[in-house]
Amino acid sequence: MTTPSPTPEAIRPVVVCVGMHKTGTTSLAVALAELGYTVCGVRQDMAPLLEAGDLDGVFAAVEGFDAFRDNPWAMLYEEFDRRYRGARFILTTRDEAQWIASAVGHFGREDTPLRTWIYGVGHPGGNEDIYRARFRRHNQEGLDYFRGDGWAQLCEFLGAEVPTGMPFPHANKRNRSSARPGGLILQRLLRRVAAGRWNPIRSGR
Questions:
Q1: Are 186 and 201 in contact, with CB atoms under 8 Å apart?
Q2: How many CA atoms lie within 13 A of 190 on its CB side?
């Protein structure tokens, strides 16, 4: 396997697709490649290192890539956030029923160590409830991790100063009693990519 030349972090930030497989990640990878990114896709060979908890070994094996999508990278967004200052994170999503149908149709009952590491069982066929639950939990955890406090998230994306002493606005509050500021911003940032949706959650710390 050929390892690409490193891209200095100062030139542009690393991009990480937080969305799980079968959510339009291939389309996103094509788009990123068109923009000149060197995209690292599925890496089944990472399973032994992940099972051993050797994250240093995992990241050493992919030095030189500046974009990551699919397994196992979507599951490692917190580690990317710690290791790559200024990294950008994109959550691709898909209707759950369509997602599980696609996963079962594509993977069936074929086991892989990487899917076992992610789901606890290596294939979706016959384990649809387990896979659906993990899909939902991953998406929610990703949104919760990056949600921020409203002003901080919006201003970071826009490169603007956070207003001092001003609470984030709650327009039409009566009709949005259960909406949190971060969630409202995330809804406004949704865009379409192929079969899935992509959500530029925020830049890294």
A1: yes
A2: 11
d(CA 58, CA 75): 13
Q: Which structure tokens are listed for 71?
A: 């397994």
List C-alpha distances in Å: 44 to 49, 148, 173: 10, 32, 47
Each residue of 10-68: pLDDT tens digit? 468 899 999 999 999 999 899 999 999 999 999 999 999 999 999 999 999 999 999 99
pTM: 0.72
Q: Over the stretch 124-170, which tens digit does the pLDDT of each residue have?
A: 999 999 999 999 999 999 988 887 656 766 676 667 788 887 776 65
In one letter, which amino acid is 139? N
Rounded CA-CA distance 201/171 in Å is 21
CB hemisphere CA count around 125 (13 angstroms): 9
